[in-house]
Design goal:
- With about 140 residues, the chain is mainly α.
- The chain contains five helices and two strands, in the order E-E-H-H-H-H-H.
- A two-stranded antiparallel ribbon has the order 1-2.
- It is globular and about 35 Å long.
Length: about 140
């Protein structure tokens, strides 16, 4: 977000990443606000935790598991649906709807990340994410 400490990333849709040297990369040309930085940083910190637990990044299923966890525990989907949870008297059907939309957001974000990182097609990325989704979604940090 300005300054000379960021990196200008030319990759389509990439806003950040975890380098092979275990450094968090933030792409300054893709981050337009402090909220963008917080969202990407929270996502990459989950990957960093997975890295500390020896995730094999060459295993596409391990990558998918990490992307699911990163989408769930980062601010990516929380900012989209979190405000609705705190606005007041939501009735049970609305809570269920928000919960399902949040889960779908996590699934979609993880699929997009797997597709971007591995260059596999959308259908293949979705299939891999779907295969590991329930177990990964239920894992704690």
């Amino acid at each position: 977000v300005g300054g000379s400490s960021g990196i200008n990333a030319e990759y389509g849709g990439l806003k950040g990443g975890l380098t092979s040297d275990s450094e968090i990369l933030l792409c300054e040309n893709s981050l337009k606000s402090a909220a963008d930085v917080e969202t990407v940083l929270s996502h990459e910190l989950v990957h960093f935790l997975d890295h500390l637990n020896n995730t094999d990044w060459t295993d596409i299923k391990a990558l998918a598991r990490s992307e699911i966890r990163a989408a769930k525990y980062s601010l990516e989907c929380h900012t989209q649906y979190g405000a609705q949870l705190y606005e007041g008297n939501l009735e049970q059907p609305q809570l269920c709807s928000i919960s399902q939309r949040f889960k779908q957001c996590v699934r979609d974000r993880a699929t997009d990340s797997v597709r971007l990182v591995t260059n596999v097609g959308s259908h293949k990325a979705r299939s891999i994410v779907d295969e590991v989704f329930e177990k990964s979604y239920s894992e704690e940090l």
